[in-house]
Design goal:
Blueprint (H helix, E strand, L loop, with lengths): L1 H14 L7 H9 L5 H18 L1 H21 L11 H31 L2 H6 L5 H31 L7 H25 L9 H15 L11 H7 L3 H13 L15 H22 L9
Membrane topology: Multi-pass membrane protein
Main location: membrane
Family: Belongs to the ABC-2 integral membrane protein family.
């Protein structure tokens, strides 16, 4: 009778829904799902954009530096490019847009990654359940938004103050779109990879800014590219800024300007190829050199 009663009691308990201690907690743990890459990337993108626009120093340096160059050099330049009927200001305006892309996508991102690595932010994020790819999605989203904003700002000033003509056909608008997109992705990935060469946040600007400035001078931003020494043109052809600037010239300048281009054509297919290869190289170099472990947080 005792055994039968005990068995009945146990059966009644199971029927009533009684579970061993910890069963419900274990079930809850198993039912929790980690956020997917896209969801985590969207959340990280929101954090990146808020952090950027709340940091006034970064906002001013990244967005306003190309604008200041545009205002200063646009006010200085005058006359026609030798051998053409094109205003020298128009050539400079097209080149400064490429400099703006490099400012937001390369310089700003490389410095930002170096600071986050030095302060331990990168290390802490690597220790969370967040997919590591979400970190790069956030960075790329930030770069895309700021680059589009920078380009719109430069175009507005160039058109309003210096008379830069807007693209005259849908094909030229399309060229502006893919040149801007490929250039932004290439510079962003190169910036992530270049951050590995920065030992700490204090030296970030000193290591990034000279590269940024030199590439502008040799890539036809401040001077017509055909007026640079031949050996400088050869060196510049290995880097993406020269090709971005050439693509933007094809958008804003008349086709007659190709008479003074090195290949006597816009070389749009080659521009796309070179920028695509730089984007691929930047992706590979970032995968090989990116360090998730900075200095230990104390």
């Amino acid at each position: 009778m005792t055994l039968t009663a005990s068995s009945g009691t146990a059966s009644s308990g199971e029927a009533a829904g009684t579970r061993p201690p910890g069963h419900e907690a274990g079930h809850a743990r198993r039912s929790v799902r980690m956020p997917g890459m896209l969801r985590a990337g969207a959340a990280r993108s929101s954090v990146e954009l808020k952090a950027f626009f709340r940091n006034k120093q970064s906002l001013v340096f990244t967005l306003m530096f190309p604008v200041l160059l545009l205002l200063v050099f646009g006010s200085i330049f005058s006359g026609k490019v030798a051998g053409t009927d094109t205003d020298l200001k128009q050539v400079f305006m097209a080149g400064i847009i490429a400099a703006g892309v490099m400012s937001t996508a390369f310089s700003g991102l490389a410095i930002n990654v170096a600071i986050e690595r030095d302060t331990g932010t990168v290390r802490r994020l690597a220790m969370t359940p967040m997919p590591k790819s979400a970190y790069f999605i956030g960075k790329l989203s930030r770069v895309v938004v700021t680059t589009v904003l920078e380009t719109a700002l430069l175009l507005g000033i160039a058109w309003g103050l210096f008379g830069l003509p807007m693209p005259s056909s849908p094909e030229r608008w399309a060229t502006l779109g893919w040149d801007l997109a490929l250039g932004t992705v290439a510079c962003a990935l190169i910036g992530c990879a270049y951050a590995a060469a920065i030992p700490n946040s204090r030296s970030a600007s000193a290591i990034v800014t000279p590269v940024f400035m030199v590439l502008q001078f040799i890539s036809g931003v401040f001077f017509p590219f055909n007026q640079l020494p031949h050996w400088i043109q050869t060196v510049a052809a290995f880097f993406p800024v020269k090709w971005m600037a050439q693509g933007f010239r094809s958008v804003f300048l008349p086709d007659s300007f190709t008479a003074v281009e090195p290949a006597h054509s816009w070389e749009l297919s080659r521009i796309a190829l070179v920028l695509g290869l730089w984007a691929l190289a930047g992706l590979v170099l970032t995968a090989m050199t990116f360090r998730w472990r900075g200095p230990r947080v104390r």
